[in-house]
Amino acid sequence: MNTSLTVIFRFMNFICSLGSFAWSFLQSLLSMQNTFGVMPDLANKIIKKNYMIFNKISITIFMVVIGQIGYSQDLLHYDKPAVEWVEAIPIGNAFMGGMVFGDPYKEHIQLNESTLYSGDPHNSYKSLNIRDKYNDVIQLLKEEKYDLVQDLVQNEWLGRNQQSYQPMGDLWIEMDHEEDVFDYNKKLDLSNATVTVSYTTNNTIYKREIFASYPDHVFVIKLSREGQGLLSGKIALSTPHEPTMEISGYKNRLNLNGQAPGFVLRRTLKTVENLGDEYKYPEIYHKDGSRKEFAKQVLYGDEVNNLGMYFQTSLEVRNQGGSVKYLDGSIVMEDAEEVIIILTAATSYNGFDKSPANEGKDPSALVDHYLEEVTSFSYNDLLSNHVDDYASLFNRVSLEIGESSEQSLLPTDHRVELFSNGNDVNLASLYFQFGRYLLISGSRPGSQPLNLQGIWNKDIIPPWNGAYTMNINTEMNYWPAEVTNLSECHEPLFQAIHELAENGAKTAYTMFGNQGWLANHNMTIWRQAEPVDNCYCSFWPMVGGWLTSHMWERFLFSGDKKFLAEQAFPLIKGSALFYKDWLIPNKDGYLVTPVGHSPEQLFKYEENKRAAYSSGPTMDMAIIKETFHRYLKAVEYLNLEDEYKEEIAVKMNKLLPYKIGKYGQLQEWQMDFEDGDVKHRHLSHLYGMYPSNQIHKNSDPALISSVNKTLERRGDGGMGWSKAWKIALRARLFQGDQALYTLESLISLITDTSHGIHPGGTYGNLFNGPPYQIDGNFGGTAAIAEMLLQSHAGEIHLLPALPTDWSKGKVTGLKARGGFEIDMEWEEGKIKKVIILSKLGGLCRVRTDDLLQSEGDVVINKVSDHSMNPNPLFEYMDAGSPIIVDESKVESVEKMKSYGFEFYSKPGKKYIFYTD
Fold this sequence. Notes:
By secondary structure, this protein is an alpha+beta fold. It is built from 20 helices and 40 strands. Helix 13 (543-558) runs antiparallel to helix 14 and helix 14 (561-582) crosses helix 15. Mean pLDDT is 92; it is low at 1-70.
């Protein structure tokens, strides 16, 4: 804690002590008859009114002090409890997630467990084989009968709807408060990942402190009070899975046992029947296609052969003073001075390929183990374990943009509502750090990777199943992992890729007859590799390359050759092997994918016809270019003699180049089709610009121009994740003010809680939506980092896309490729000081808009704008020259003035640079 905040808190402790003394004195007067010459009840009202005035004076003084000497950069705070789920505060220890509502009278914490999914790995539709209809599809594509291709693919090449991420339950803490509540405050301190709720009633200040501990696998809730009132009420558990709920307990222990659905169908039964897909769902349809008697979207227990994952949620209650006891399905607390609730959970999940119903773990044994492990820990022990663990990650990076203002002191939901007025630029810092908080809270070694909802979900049938949508959303969840110094949080994704590749190798062979492994548009905890559901977007066997790009980035940031050799390379190679067998020559001799689509977008042809599938769409080709390139580079770095090296090198040189269309835009498809929706939310064909490093400042200027034109045509709207992607792309184009404009649109208050597709914004609790999905948060955090630091194009570029309104700021701990960490200060839009920590040593190349001087005896050399960095960790791709339909539509690209220099660094040494 810095000195200013220490002063604040000492001041507030003094105020609170004074208030407690005054209150105790006034309370003692109540015991006298005819106090102040009036009856005691009237005296009580007078005292309470004066106490409230005293409180308001204290808060006013506190706000003045904060306004003078600063405030916490990392605090979300609210002046009322949550009513809607998207107003609650998220907490998590990666294994469990919770949403804290903060109601003074009846606290509600909605609970999740990261492995709790419906279904079973052995119940899916895998009878898919493209070979029977492959030649028919190719012929139809040659004849440009795209609508018939789409019908055939949707009817013959798609599986069934995947299973859903499930809510686990709810914790309820009902307090015996009979009087009104005032001085309410709810806050989340990002610096220690602790939620605090405080309020005053019945002459007593009540407080709740809530945190989720990763090292101890528990949630901890401490109830305390200051004043003469005591803690009385009851603690209960419930679950939306009511058909399987069992409540038990004894003494201070409360258990909830249940079983998740063995089958969940997001589509309505009518939709399934209209598609003729009854045969894919034997759980609810007979072989003749008729509905079974109990057919519905959610099946439990004996309705589905007793399939479904078991789970247990348990808590133990400790008390000081008074009593706590199990009674009629809840824990009753009476007249306690302090109560501590320790909650944990587990499921029968035993791996992606084992039935949790028939081959699962015992959740009761796991829960008993977790609670026994913390038996000897005091509350302070648990808090210390949690804070030490969490802060070791969170404190690696700090960010301050601008200065606090009066608007910065408002409750967080009001700050979001007003953000676009430009008077509270520092909210961007909070949003950035909130994304890092969510990543730490939701994804740690040993946990599951973050799905569309992260680990937070209240619905049995959540939007898009709460699954892993891998044509952008899953990958976006992990964009901040390396650059914001949270590499450990990447681990669950890497583990999932290994698991997916096992199923993906089987699917590549049985469905395609190809080598290697593949994945399609979606998966769940059961790691499906086949195309699921009835959406045309589901058939997209391109995912492997995008997923393994995350492993390649880990290597570039860390320089870990062991990781490259043992974890990344086998998966990169497997993906490359599938692609090499999937490619075919087009009429010009270029290699293209035979059947592909640009995720979720349609194209127009023959006037107003629309379709999805064609050969060689741009994103397909970009992912294959990247995968082949990285496979060959890995072979080189690891000094391998691989039998497929020559074949892949030859095929890489024959891949279809990028193409620039009739509007000067980067073409989305091999043919210069019209957009089905020119404002479409996806930006798939810009993959090469971001998150890839194929198109960059050293690329052919025509490519950069075409990306800019594409963004102009797409516009700045879209869902939250789409806006986040656009911010990152604008940053790569060095368009800081435009990036901020879109960021202000992303951080705009929304109250719509529906599940439909709407323009994206931010709920009061800083979640992205509507509907709520978490990728926009992570994409926004990564995009802000991209505005401040880039290292994808052979050098570390400092403040490459700094908006005019962010004229002053400071950041510490951002990571660059090559194993470097960066601290920066800037004023009036210019760098003031830079500290570069070299973790690995080696050549460090830096680019700035300002001329810097070195501190110390380091030798620096100027570098030209386009020279290749010999440090292999700064390697980037050359996208080559594009095919251009109309040269007149290609706009010139303004060359920005900048300065480049380089120096050789030593491992563990810091290098300081500054301006005059």
